[in-house]
Amino acid sequence: MGIRKIDTIIIGGGQAGLAVSYCLGQRGLQHIVLEQAAQAANAWRNDRWDSFTLVTPNWSFRLPGAEYQGDQPDSFMPKSEIVAHLELYVERFRLPVHYNTLVTAVEQNVKENGYLVSTVEALMEARNVVVATGLYQKPKLPSFAGALSSRITQVHSRHYRNPQALPEGAVLVAGSGQSGCQIAQELYQCGRKVYLCVGSAGRAPRRYRGKDIYEWLKLTGFIDRTPDKLRSPQEKFASNPLVSGKDGGMTLNLHQFARDGVTLLGRLQDARDEKVWLAADLKENLAKSDKKEVEIVGMIDEYIQKNGIGVPPETLSALRDGYDLDEILELDLQVAGITTIIWAMGYAFDFSMVKFPIFDNDGFPIQKRGATAYPGLFFVGLPWLYKQKSGHLFGVGEDAEYIASLIAAR
Questions:
Q1: Separation between Cα atoms, residue 385 and residue 401, nearest integer Å
Q2: Percent of the chain beyond pLDDT 90?
Q3: Which of 292, 375, 390, 397 is most solvent-facing, going by the fewest CB within 10 Å?
Q4: Strand 153-156 to strand 338-343: parallel, antiparallel, or no bridges (unpaired)?
């Protein structure tokens, strides 16, 4: 069988890859999408818990050609609805997605001045390649996870579904980013005793001065910031402000967690058998989270004043319960009644399939608005490719349109 020739190959059939496919299709440009999963919306379908909702309002669903048109723009779409929207997107626009197709390598095709794309079953030639695999390929697990007692059930946050699926007993959640906080909240609201290892992710109020926080972040230009506004390259991997879409939208405040009975801990440093050891950084991390909220509401207040917007002032509750807790440096899991550890430490990304020297010291692609130094090789669907919102449903369409325009120009 000969090598199949295709003008553009998009690797990854998530929201970013589908958005690029739509934009190319509108221009009548030949392309295919290679997706390793068996169905559309794999990450939303299989890597989220049962009660998951968008943390941004429904109006933020901005896939090109399928922008949210419903009558609840300020509500928060549940997982099943997100999946249905993406399935319909593929069907409605007849996007050429090939499922169960794992790409193993992208290499230079010197003879044809393009690229060779290898899958498990085939080899293809392409003039353009768009890498849309996202930033969340490999679940992070600490090296010492294997040293824990076999009595402990260990679950990465991507495999957590609901409290009833876990063994009876207390739960240790390692990580207080978006997933960790929402899972911890669901567990303790269901009556579970929860221990939560706290990082430095910042929070924001769900609503402030009459608007959802993301409405303000859009109005102030916060989500439209470009990479030159970053204080360090590593900041592009920082968590978004912590909020929840549960029950119509909720604030996630660790001090409230403590008030509700959650035992807050510092970062998990080591573990062996039935013991875990923790850093003495709980108060420091709480202070960082508190500071982020102060910075965000301060930015909003300044914007309101500068633009003469007539909304009444608001003073947020200054909870400090977490600061009253003793730092726990060593915890006996059996004594604490902990039967499950949920690893909510995020993901690592992996672009090793791309065989070109285009990555920085963090492994992040070196590019300008998604375009690399290699003509026809692009990235899409990552935060801060062009703006802070580039990796989100409300930002990916802007990047997809730009990448499609570059491909059309070639």
A1: 13
A2: 93
A3: 375
A4: parallel
